[in-house]
Amino acid sequence: xxxxxxxxxxxxxxxxxxxxxxxxxxxxxxxxxxxxxxxxxxxxxxxxxxxxxxxxxxxxxxxxxxxxxxxxxxxxxxxxxxxxxxxxx
Length: 89
Hints:
mainly alpha; 3 helices; elongated; Flagellar biosynthetic protein FliQ
């Protein structure tokens, strides 16, 4: 196996990881920003006001995208298993 092929595998793995994490994190970041603007506008400094909506949106994102996340991880894993013969020999 050439170093270029190994780098391609590593790049694809990083792309899958970044995509999967972004699906979970980005909705929470957007809601956190909206809540922060609301807190700044109203001068409310309650910690739970910013934590609870982000938690709920993150859980909702996991529920909605869970099937896609598992399918994406399984596809990547099967692709890596199929590449084992070319990596070894």
